[in-house]
Design a protein that fits this description.
- It is built from ten helices and nine strands.
- By secondary structure, the protein is an alpha+beta fold.
- The chain has two domains: 59 residues, Orthogonal Bundle (Arc Repressor Mutant, subunit A), CATH 1.10.10; 177 residues, Trna Endonuclease, Chain: A, domain 1 (3-Layer(aba) Sandwich), CATH 3.40.1350.
- It has a seven-stranded mixed beta sheet with strand order 3-4-5-6-7-9-8, with helices on both faces. It has a two-stranded antiparallel sheet with strand order 1-2.
- Helix 1 crosses helix 2 and helix 1 packs parallel to helix 9.
- The chain is globular and about 55 Å long.
Length: 259
C-alpha cells in the first residue's frame, strides 16, 4: 500500500521529539535538542505549541519531560487514551455485555460522549462482533501468536482545539499498528476512505518510528469485499473490506497465508 500521506515538517518534528521523550526517564528541552541535533529554541516552541505533545507528555517540577505512553510493547499508558484497552487473549474471554460495560466505563474516563441517539452502542456491539470473528479466524490461520497483540477500541486524542482524533479500533502487533475505521454500510464512500486514512500521521507520532501504521476501512454490512481504493485523487490507496474479509488486511502485511 502507498502511504496515506507523507508527514509534513511539523508532524515529523513532533514525531521525533515524542519518540525521544517516550524512550527516556525524563529529559529537559535542551537535552532533547542535543539528541536530535535541533535548535533548543525550536524544540521549546514545538513543546509549547503542540497540543498533541502536551497530551502525550508531561513536564515535572524540574522541567524534565516524560511520556505518558511507552512506545514499545507493552504500551504502558495506552489505556489513558482508550475506551477499551487490553490484550487480545483477555478481550476474547469477555462476553458482550461485560465488554460493553468496560467500554462504557473507559469512554466515560476519556471524555467520550456516549449519547446513543444515533445508535452508538449498537455500533460498538457491531464492531466487537467483527473483531471477535476476526481473531477466531486469525487463531486458525496464524496460531496463538495473535493473542498477545494489543487491542484498543475508541482511541481518543486532541490534536488541536478543534480537531479530535477518534480511531475506532487499533490492533497493535509486534511492529505494526492497524487502524480500523468501521462503518455499518455496504457501499464505499470516498469521503469515508479519506476519513480512515487521515489519522495515520498522528498515530505515527503516538507509536514512534519502530511501528508501521496501516489504515483500513471496514464495511460491516458488506460481504466478500476486499480491495484497495484510491485516497482522493492522489496515488495513495487504502484497503477496504467487509468484516468477513478483514483477515486479508492482516495477511497483506504479515503474510501468514501462502499462495
Amino acid at each position: 500500500m502507498i502511504p496515506a500521506r507523507p508527514m509534513d515538517y511539523a508532524d515529523e518534528m513532533e514525531r521525533r521529539i515524542c519518540s525521544v521523550i517516550c524512550g527516556s526517564e525524563g529529559l529537559k528541552a535542551r537535552e532533547i535538542a542535543k539528541i536530535l541535533s535541533l535548535d533548543h529554541t525550536a524544540v521549546n516552541r514545538i513543546l509549547a505549541r503542540s497540543p498533541l505533545l502536551r497530551e502525550l507528555c508531561w513536564q515535572d517540577d524540574d522541567y524534565r519531560w516524560h511520556g505518558i505512553l511507552r512506545q514499545s510493547w507493552p504500551h504502558t499508558g495506552l489505556q489513558e487514551f482508550s475506551g477499551y484497552y487490553d490484550y487480545v487473549k483477555n478481550f476474547l474471554t469477555l462476553g458482550e455485555e461485560e465488554w460493553l460495560r468496560a467500554m462504557e466505563e473507559g469512554c466515560a474516563d476519556i471524555g467520550r460522549n456516549l449519547n446513543d441517539t444515533r445508535g452508538l452502542l449498537h455500533s460498538f456491539r457491531d464492531c466487537r462482533a467483527v473483531m471477535a470473528a476476526l481473531f477466531s479466524d486469525l487463531r486458525e490461520m496464524l496460531g496463538e501468536a495473535c493473542l498477545s497483540w494489543e487491542l484498543v477500541f475508541e482511541f481518543r486524542l486532541k490534536k488541536s482545539r478543534h480537531v479530535r482524533i477518534y480511531a475506532d479500533v487499533l490492533v497493535i502487533t509486534e511492529n505494526r499498528v492497524f487502524s480500523l475505521e468501521f462503518k455499518m454500510k455496504d457501499k464505499i464512500d470516498p469521503d469515508e476512505v479519506i476519513q480512515a486514512a487521515k489519522y495515520s500521521p498522528y498515530l505515527e507520532i503516538v507509536f514512534g518510528p519502530d511501528y508501521e501504521v496501516i489504515p483500513a476501512l471496514v464495511l460491516t454490512k458488506a460481504a466478500d469485499l476486499y480491495e484497495f481504493v484510491p485516497i482522493s485523487s492522489g496515488d495513495a490507496v487504502l484497503p477496504v473490506c467487509s468484516g468477513d474479509m478483514l483477515f486479508n488486511v492482516f495477511n497483506e502485511y504479515i503474510g501468514f497465508l501462502k499462495g
